[in-house]
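Appendix B. Raw example, untouched.
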Amino acid sequence: MKTFIGKLVFQIIQDENNKQFDIQHRIFFGKNKEQAEKLALEKGISEEETICSEDGKLIRWKFCGMQLRDISEVENGFQFDSQTHETSCPELYLQLADLKLASKSVMV
């Protein structure tokens, strides 16, 4: 059995606002990439939905597509995602990020 990380992309559609996207990273297992792709596609389609907000507006989650990466034989510390954030208040960002800050760790 192989392990894959899937990136599923959904468009959030509300009224004329079609500018929001939700990106989800999920783990899939399969004998091969084709089987894992089938599972990821099924998951993406099953997560599509239309809900009604508190103010009565319809919000639709539309599955746009996915990418898969085989991580069965990756090295310890393998980077699969990276994000850069800019903020006017670094202290608040670190609090909101709920990081396991290592005050006792070795700083280089």
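End of appendix B.
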